[in-house]
Amino acid sequence: MAFPLVTATYAAILGLILAALSVWVVATRLHTGVLHGDGRQEALGRRMRAHANFTEYVPMILILIALLEMMRSNLYLITTLLIILVIARLMHPFGMLAPVNSMQQYIFRGLPAVATLAVLLVAAMTLLLRCLSVPYGLH
């Protein structure tokens, strides 16, 4: 097993994105004076969901991809999945602020949602196939 250096590098980048999302939510809380919940403030609610959506998907995806890297899976696949994930996670907050049913919403919210789900599915299925192809008992 190898240390997942590629995944670790992208995890650091994604950590910075999460920090930016956190600051975005906190700044909105300070601006609106809402310290708990969303205070029925639509803008705050959207920002909170962008932050929550990130924390719902990114950790599991990073775990799956790190495991793939530790199993010495194809680095091109790993890097491609991580690049797609970073781009999708950068785009998603802009879609959360878009007007309902607008082109901005479809491009910046819909596409990143599909891309994130695709990365999750590809990473999970690839890892499962890798695990099933390794004879048990061999280390």
Write the layout of secondary structure elements.
Layout: H1 5-32, H2 42-70, H3 75-96, H4 103-133
Helix pairs in contact: 1-2, 1-3, 2-3, 2-4, 3-4
Quickly describe the structure.
With 139 residues, this protein is mostly helical. It has helices at residues 5-32, 42-70, 75-96, 103-133.
* Elements, N to C (H/E): HHHH
Helix-strand category? mainly alpha
Query: What is the arithmetic mean of pLDDT?
Result: 94
Major beta sheet summary: none
**What is the distance, rounded to the nearest whole angstrom, between the alpha carbons of the first and last residues?**
9 Å
Taking all Cα atoms into account, the compactness measure Rg is: 17 Å
SS element count, helices: 4
The helix content is: over 70%
Give unreliable regions as ranges: none
How many strands?
A: 0
Report strand %.
Answer: under 5%
Shape: elongated
How would you describe this structure to a colleague?
- The protein has four helices and no strands.
- The protein has helices spanning 5-32, 42-70, 75-96, 103-133.
- The model has no long low-confidence stretch (mean pLDDT 94).
Task: Tag the structure with descriptive keywords.
139 residues; mainly alpha; 79% helix; 0% strand
